[in-house]
Amino acid sequence: MDRSGKMGANIREQIELAFENLKAALTSVGADFEHLVKVNNYIVDIGKNIAQFREIRDKYVNTAAPPASTTVGVPKLARPGALFEIEAVAILPPK
Predict the structure, then answer these.
(1) What is the rounded distance in angstroms from the CA atom of residue 82 to the CA atom of residue 43?
(2) Fewest CB atoms less than 10 Å from the CB: which of 37, 46, 65, 72?
(3) DSSP letter at 35?
(4) Are 74 and 43 in contact (CB under 8 A)?
């Protein structure tokens, strides 16, 4: 969701928003995508949406050395209208 609480209208918008939110969260603690060690992704209608997910994900993560990840197709997510959810674990850089 964006800062106003709005969710993207389609899978592409939701995935892009999720990665931008993750980027902002990482930046807020002095990290970036290279500090990710594990990412879990949940996609409604995975067969139809996996290609869009991979295309967008690859703009953010280092595809030569990506974090460990699990991507799961789900029939539905808890929030009505949600088509994508991401969960990430990062190791912060030393201060």
Answers:
(1) 9
(2) 65
(3) G
(4) yes
